[in-house]
Amino acid sequence: MSELLLDIKDLSIIYSTEDGVVRALNKANLQLHKGESLGLVGETGAGKTTLARGIMRLIPNPPGKITNGEIIYEGKDLLKLKDKEMRQLRGRKISMIFQDPMTSLNPVMTAGDQIREVILTHDPGLSKKEGRKKAEDMLEMVGINASRYDDYPHQFSGGMKQRVVIAIALACNPTLLIADEPTTALDVTIQAQVLEMIHDLKEKNNTAMLLITHDLGVVAQNCDRVAIIYAGEIVEYGTLRQVYKNILHPYTEGLFGSVPSLDTTSKRLNAIDGMMPDPTQLPKGCKFADRCKFAEKRCLENEPELIERADGHKVRCFRYEQEG
Question: Which residue has the higher pLDDT, 154 or 200?
């Protein structure tokens, strides 16, 4: 096992709104090792992006607030760093590819200048000319001709915009890359190209990656470990083989069951019954109990802990408490 890079312990994040307090993340625990890829999977509203923004310390305050936990990165708790120290880490050590490339880029700056700005911010000793050369190299690295340095975002297609965003994120060779659904707005062929490029660049620079997605196929192709998140809680966590070959949590089972199969013919997909609970009124017991076919009385009254099995596979379910 490689050296531990990121250790998230009992992280909780809330948003105070007019409708009440949204408990977006509830004592989440995750670990990521150097050079490793971790897939974070869950449906819309499960807390995936909130977790990513929490790591970057980009939770808008107000209305958001980190109420509990630690985010240990290279031995330091990011939540205890001053704002200036955190700004120095962002981009240089920890970078994020945001969900929508259409809104991530500044429309009145050229693509090249946006990459150069990141480079010069974290390496002020470089001249503007040297910064431009490095930015041109980054464009080439993500498959865009350096001659397009002076083009504006509106002159690029969606896939090319995403490549520019990736070039910005990787400009300073970060040790941790957070990719928040990096291919959501792209068609299938461009998706494959972008994911392959991210994978190649990650391997080349030995960058650790937290890949946030709802696509189990994307995780299977790109990740070493998988974490399943539901209603702000990690409900299952393990290696790719453990989670895909030995599903433990009923929610994970439901996710895999809803994926269409080429081997069977059916007119309807197998959806998970019910809806995710309202984050302003989370139930007292297990958050998945109302939708679970195995639910017992205690599931409605008590909250299960995240149990680690002998092989390191973790699950939040009472059915496995004898093995913890």
Answer: 154
Cis peptide leading into 63, omega within 30 of 0?
A: yes
Using 50, 70 and 90 to split pLDDT, how confident is the model at 269?
A: low
Residues 6+ apart with CB under 8 A from 313: 236, 237, 238, 239, 242, 243, 246, 248
207 closest CA partner among 166, 161, 239, 146: 166
Please tell me the total number of residues recorded for the chain in this structure. Answer: 324
| DSSP for residue 44 | T
Q: What is the pTM of this model?
A: 0.89
> Which long-range contacts (C-beta less than 8 Å, at least 24 apart) are formed by 56-62?
56/90, 56/94, 56/96, 56/178, 57/81, 57/86, 58/96, 59/13, 62/16
Token duo for residue 274? 């019910």
* Average pLDDT in the chain: 89
Estimate to the nearest angstrom the gap between the alpha carbon of 324 and the chain centroid. 27
Rounded Cα–Cα distance for residues 232 and 239 (Å): 20
Please choose, from the candidates 172, 176, 169, the residue with its C-alpha nearest in 3D space to the C-alpha of residue 3: 176
Residues 6 or more apart whose CB falls under 8 angstroms from that of 105 comprise 111, 114, 153, 161, 164, 165
Torsion of CA 121, 127, 128, 131, to 10 degrees: -60
Helices and strands, number each (H, E), in the chain:
11, 12
Distance CA 117, CA 168 (A): 9
